[in-house]
Amino acid sequence: MLLNEQLAVSAKPRLSVRVASEAQDIRRAQKLRFDVFAGEMGAELASHDLGIDCDEYDELCDHLIVEDAASGLVVGTYRMLSPAMARRAPSLYSEHEFDLTRLAHLRAGLIEVGRSCVHRDFRSGAVIALLWSGLADYVQLHGGQYLAGCASVSLSDGGHQAVSLYRQLEAKHLSPAEWRVFPHLPLPLDRVCDDAPSAPLPALIKGYLRAGAYICGEPAWDPDFNCADFFMLLPMGRLSSRYNKHFVG
């Protein structure tokens, strides 16, 4: 191999991000979701026997995937519901967990995201960064004014970490009252001590907050996934300068 060919090979990025274009790509993303949600978190999935995580929203959504060139694996994924496709859905996915009445006037410009996960061997931050970059392109393409979705925190410790995290976020990152949402099944904050030792913010929540997102109220309790879900809302006009270069160039 010639030297310039060797340099070209060595310079090729190991990780890349794109919107899935074929059914087999989506299937690979669903397999990753299954491995993380069912295999690691112990989620009770209706699609468990298929060995993938899938639901009725997958056909309406676009799927962002991060691939590892060395292994060929999908190592990160995000699911996006555009405003146009949301009009074809009976409701937003988040409405299964939250009353979103106060956000009704934002719907025309709202992109809902969810089902985010990263392969356990690739959680150093690079994959999350690529997912955010991919979201940036997607938001621009679809003219989104708001990015919204749920960020999950495991309840494997009995909920102490989730309650402690909510108390921290409530003090600094709570949305204005007119953007508040209300969980159908609230996490019982008053029955769980917020005495968990300080821990790093989950990467997804950290990414939202650094970009300028709000939490829009108390977390919902998702028994099937054994997690607390925090509803996050990012108005694109509020983007921090750190993330602005990704979203508006």
Automatic annotation (TrEMBL):
The keyword Nucleotide-binding does not apply. SUPFAM superfamilies: Acyl-CoA N-acyltransferases (Nat) (SSF55729). Its EC number is 2.3.2.30. GO terms for biological process: lipid metabolic process. It is an enzyme of class 2 (transferase). Pfam families: Acetyltransf_5. GO terms for molecular function: ornithine-acyl [acyl carrier protein] N-acyltransferase activity. Pathway: Lipid metabolism. Keywords: Acyltransferase, Lipid biosynthesis, Lipid metabolism, Transferase. It catalyses: a (3R)-hydroxyacyl-[ACP] + L-ornithine = a lyso-ornithine lipid + holo-[ACP] + H(+). Coiled coil: none annotated. Belongs to the acetyltransferase family. OlsB subfamily. Catalyzes the first step in the biosynthesis of ornithine lipids, which are phosphorus-free membrane lipids. Catalyzes the 3-hydroxyacyl-acyl carrier protein-dependent acylation of ornithine to form lyso-ornithine lipid (LOL). This is L-ornithine N(alpha)-acyltransferase. It comes from Chromobacterium rhizoryzae.
